[in-house]
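Worked example

This section walks through a single chain of length 668. The input is the sequence exactly as stored; nothing has been trimmed or padded.
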Amino acid sequence: MRVMRSILEGTYDDAYKSLIDADEGFHREDQEAADRRNFDTLHKHYNLCLDVDRIDSLGPTPIYQDIASIEQILFPVKDQKAVFSASTTPLVSQTMTKLNQLLISSMAVFYVSADDKNPELNSIFFRQADLGLPSKEYYEVSKTTEAYKTGLLDILTKVVGEYSNGSQDATLREAESKKYNFQRWSNEKVAAAVDRFIDFETKLAGISLKADELQDPIQMYNPVKLAEFQKQNPLIDWTTMLEAFVPNGIKVPDTVINTTPSYFEQLNQLLSSGKVTEQTLQEYLIITFVLNKVDYLDTTSREAFRKMKSATSSGTTAERPRWETCTEYVSNVFSDSIGRYYTLKKFGSEKERQKAEVFITNIHKAWLDRIPDLEWLDEQTKAKAIEKVNLIAHKVGYSIVSPDIRQPLAIEKYYQDANIDDTSLYNTKSILSLWANNQMWAKANQEVDRNEWFMSPQTVNAYYTPNGNEIVIPAGIMQPPFYDASYPEYLKYGGIGMVIGHEITHAFDSSGRKYDGHGLLDDWWTNETSAKFDDKSQCFVDQYSKFKVPVPGNTTLNVNGKLTLGENLADNGGIAASLAAYRKLGKEEQTLPGLEHLSPEALFYINFGRIWCGKNREENSQQRIYKDPHSPLSARVNGVAQNSADFAKIFNCPAGSPMNPQTKCKMW
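Given that input, the structure is written out below as tokens.
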């Protein structure tokens, strides 16, 4: 983050000073004009975000025009007691369309991705709604919903209500509301709207699936003819919405993928129940809009939102430094553009990328070499597994095609329609959301771009994609403590080596195993071996479900071993493959000064523990238990160590001790 800040607050020439290595393969002098334009664009967006005085001078008024448009044009409500009916369908549908074009989901999520049964083609997917609170479990706790209510009352009062910061602010709000014929909400209106909103969202939560019910790709792959889906769910005009999303010249596919059929069936029942009023739906859409746009309004509005989040799910005590917020904003929108400069400062160029590829290949080969020794795999499944591992592709460092960040002209072309309103962060965010939305929908019903990355170069993370059967290791995670060129090999393999092994193992975790080597959702396992996989998986589910984390209220929650199964399998398989790869090096290395009593393999495990060293607020821990497929940090480390006979031997853990239990779970 600080490296990107230095780039955004420095000059163009500064961006090319103190590079970690030569910029071999990166075009600069021959494309300098484009490079400078790209750099200037980053600075303009960063400075626009930093200008809090200008943002605050406008108060929440930039949102008035959009709210007025919903109330008066998109979804006017003439009778507050009128229940939702077929006559309301065009109104709610066009409002949902407007929100989705701004990347704001409401009542349903739509996205474009590779088709599991035809991984060379992008299909349209439907999914259950995102909720205002982190997960459905939160709506079952009255203390949480009360805090949610208090927070929403504060936010709406300050954003669309009769609140003001003083006479000048009051005058501005009055003038802007008259300009757009927007009637600011009275305190009574705010209170009633919040009650209806929470009641409706609670109903949506009630028909939503929990996170651990959204893990099986076979259960979530439900292709349906769009015409049939529309017939089954007639109260929202899904067809017209998709036609609005897809650019001219691209045909809306005849078939869509419904990932949560039970949700949409019950949503249709809810909307047709005669218990949902038009006013409730209008307010639901408006409040959802406000919650998604408030971060781009004034400090007072943002602070009200932060306090609500703090009280319900995050536990934060203060707003982040503005430079952090703005750096993240620029990095999220112009990820590859700023990623170019980050890569050269922190990772290197083509030479370093090629070195990293060699390192990845070592882990890959070690993973492959372990398969013949897995006695629980029958020969047919083993042969298919070997085929799949051999087909796993690598991407490392940074994107070199879509776009090629080595070429400023390619970056400029990629972001050519990502424009800026120099006078308004709020308007600029809307422009960029429309651009990003168009980027996604332009892929609908088109061939999958295998060269596309789903993470930026500066992201401290990595991923495996089952449809592409590839692992992607960005430059951002090739940093200490995961990796440093000067590290001894045992630290590298205990750090980034484990991560690489982890991502490869995802090809054979509880969901990844259901795809073949070509990215096709296909049951290629024999029944006998599949049953053994399930039996071994249960060991991990039982083990990790015993770990606990402290949460608010002076209590604890158990890890959800079912939700975290895929990541736990990847952690355990990753460390085993990385240790095997390290041992194959056969190098004699010196231990670290002051730690001579620890062997290289002991330091391998210590760096594994170090990469997951961290601390979460109790509120954040609770949220992760319900939503995050990763186990809490301590469980990620201790769970792997408990299952490792090598760890127990290296550290002389007594048999039956907490870190060397009799029962050890092993898969890969």
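What to look for: The beta strands are 109-115, 118-127, 223-225, 255-258, 393-397, 463-465, 470-474, 548-551, 555-558.
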